[in-house]
Amino acid sequence: MKRLYLSDTVAGEISAYIAAKELAPGTQLPSMGEWMERLEVGRSTLREGLKKLEAEGIIDIVNGKGLFVSEQRTFQLLASLGIKDAKAHLIEMLEVREALEVQAIVLAIRHAADHQLDAMASHLDDYRRAREKEDFLGVSEADAAFHLAIYHACGNRVLVGLIQMMHDELYLSWDSPEDRLRVFDAGFPFHEALLEAMQQRDEPAARAAFTHLIAATRQSVDALSA
Questions:
Q1: Average pLDDT score over residue span 17-29
Q2: Which of 11, 108, 147, 201 could form a disulfide with 49 if both were Cys (CB 3.0 to 4.6 A apart)?
Q3: Would you say 53 and 15 are in contact if contact means Cβ atoms under 8 Å apart?
């Protein structure tokens, strides 16, 4: 069984915070002291998690100044592609995300510790509660945390970085939180099926659930008004 490092959980939580808050490059993050209190971890564990995020190009650690969302965040590369149609942009991202994330799911099934699977279940519970309240930010935050938990459980840093690029860009592509909720709400039942398959270490079922999740999301994007 793959050993669980608390620093991986720290990195996942901070990544989820950045994605859910849709923080722009250069934005200053809470201080190390605030993160230690928020995540209930020690300084050395926090530093390890921060180093992982810095290596992945997600944050910049500036001595004497603090923590910042990286100015070189990879999702910015997509803005240079010249895709003007929002729907086409979202669909193309979903296609690439599907190709990448299905591999992360397979690797997570093979390597995830039970504690990591429990964290995914907890995030999905948060998703369910936010969905019932029509809490737009809560849905985004919980969905981001659920998928980021999968990415970090896969154990492949290069893959994590590539998927993070797609995930962040997807979350930054909405005109309104209502549209975001409508799109992600369509895929909620398949999140549940995906988690169940991963808990059972059932790769074919997990692949099928994720394929359905992406298809439902794509259908909702197609239905959005221009």
A1: 83
A2: 11
A3: yes
Contacts of 196 (CB under 8 A, 6+ apart): 205, 209
For residues 38 and 30, is the Cβ–Cβ distance under 8 A?
yes
34 and 139: one domain?
no
The pLDDT tens digits of the residues spanning 194-218 come to: 999 999 999 999 999 999 998 888 8
Tell whether 47 and 148 lie within a shared domain: no
Query: Which ranges of 22-135 does DSSP label H, i.e. alpha helix?
Result: 32-39, 43-55, 76-79, 86-111, 114-133
User: Is residue 1 domain-resident?
Assistant: no
At residue 167, φ and ψ (nearest 5 deg) are -65, -45
Instruction: Tell how far CA 17 is from the center of its chain.
Output: 9
In which domain, by residue range, is 33 found?
6-69
Residues 135 and 219 in one domain: yes
Q: Is residue 193 located within the same domain as residue 124?
A: yes
Residue type, 43: R
Q: Are residues 105 and 132 in the same domain?
A: yes
What are the backbone angles phi and psi of residue 185, rounded to the nearest 5°? -60, -35
Residues 76, 24: contact at Cβ < 8 Å? no
- In angstroms, what CA-CA distances link 113 with 3, 25, 178, 208, 219? 7, 32, 35, 22, 33
